[in-house]
Amino acid sequence: MEGVDAMPVSQQERLAILQDVSRDWLELMRAIRGLPDPAFTRPGVVGTWSIKDVLAHVSAWERELIEHVAAEEHGDEYVMPEVDQFNAEQAALDADRTLDDVRDDLEETHAELMSVLEETSVLSRDLVKNDTYLHYADHAAHINDWRRQQGRRV
Is position 18 within any domain? Predict the structure, then answer.
């Protein structure tokens, strides 16, 4: 990702960004609503990943965005990780985590991210879209497709 625009974001644009993030976050949460715990660990949602793996992946990218914002705020250079390598490394780190741990981390990390986005002076769509609302929408669609394949209501 290129450097972030240094222009301060207007309150109207901040609100619009936060609404987009919240809207697609809710779609992701709707995609998992009502599923029994065993469904979260079945592979095949995205490649071999389960829903639990997808949720851990979303949290990992949200944490990465929090670090990116912090670097931008401090004027430090941020180096975007290579996506496939990052995903593989994070998946390996998250493989043995419990579903409850992944859920708790997802909730806590998202709450932290929203607080950061509400306050940061470097907020822009270019900064957040790939790790938030576009990312959530992609994975909500994956989960909904998987649910249909499993014969579960979406």
Answer: no
CATH code of the domain in which 95 resides: 1.20.120.450
Let me know if residue 13 belongs to a domain. Answer: no
Tens of pLDDT, residues 16-63:
999 999 999 999 999 999 999 999 999 999 999 999 999 999 999 999
151 phi-psi bin (left φ>0, alpha ψ -120 to 50, beta other):
left
CA–CA gap between residue 127 and residue 139 (Å, rounded): 19
> How many domains would you assign to the chain?
1
Residue 7 has pLDDT above 80, yes or no: no
Residue span of the structural domain in which 121 resides: 24-149
The amino acid that residue 39 corresponds to is: A
Give me the amino acid identity at 80.
M
Q: Which ranges constitute the DSSP H helices of 7-132?
A: 11-32, 51-73, 83-94, 99-119, 125-128
* pTM of the full structure: 0.92
Please count the other Cβ atoms lying within 10 Å of the Cβ belonging to residue 135: 20
E strand or H helix at 142, and its extent? Answer: helix 133-149
Per the domain annotation, does 154 fall within a domain?
no
